[in-house]
Amino acid sequence: MGGTNLPIYTQKGTAMNKQVYVCGETEFSVNAIIPISQKTSSEYYLNKPNNGFWTSSLVDESSAWIEWCASEWEGKLTDTCVVIIPKKDIKVFTIDSDEDLISASTRKCKHLLTQSDVYMIDFARLYREGYHGVHVTENAAWSFHYSAPSNLVNLNAWDCESTVWFDNTWIDSFETKKIINYKIA
After folding, report:
1. Which terminus of the chain, N or C, has fewer Cβ atoms within 10 Å?
2. What integer pLDDT is reported at residue 136 of this predicted model?
3. Taking the CB of residue 82, how many other CB atoms lie within 10 A of it?
4. What is the CB neighbour count within 10 angstroms for residue 149?
């Protein structure tokens, strides 16, 4: 596997680890990654974009997504993943606090269930501002899973620490690996 072992930094100056993508039944192809698009409906329930590419950080031969699958989807996790090294010069918007979620959530919409005015993450705006993705920390995934500040859409669809990447331009190199007993071999 080529690439660098230098840490990648988010807009907050924190290191961005290698990323893990769990493949499912298909072979990984960088060119198959579909760029994000903003939801077009004025009603919204899930705080996620259309498309995008989802990863979680490599930590101790596993990832938050692999660990989540071990506890929530026992027996349904595929045995293949891709470990990805991001490029050095990427820009990632990290949500870890109320302030981060407020800063990212500038798209007004109607909540699907309540029809009240709410604000969701404006993925298209962040993409236009040069970000390569949005990273939700473990703290934010838990803190905002069922509630969020003020009129913001919560992060109930973000089950664990993860990043949604807007396209494939952030990838430096990758290697396909096996998952055995919820660990990357």
Report:
1. C
2. 95
3. 19
4. 15
What's the chain's average pLDDT? 84
Amino acid at site 141: A
Residues in the chain: 185
CB within 8 A of 32, min separation 6: which ones?
Answer: 26
Per-residue pLDDT, averaged over 59-86, amounts to 88
Which segment of 3-7, 116-120, 141-145 scores lowest on mean pLDDT?
3-7
- The residue with tokens 């071990």 is 70
* Concatenated DSSP letters of the chain: --S--SPEE-TTS-EE--EEEE-TTS---GGGPPPPB----SEE-S---BS-EEEEEEETTEEHHHHHHHHHSTT---SEEEEEEEPTT--EEEE-SHHHHHHH--EEEEETTT--EEEE--HHHHHHTT--EEEE-HHHHHHTSS--STTB---TT--SSEEEESSSTTEEEEEEEEEETTEE-
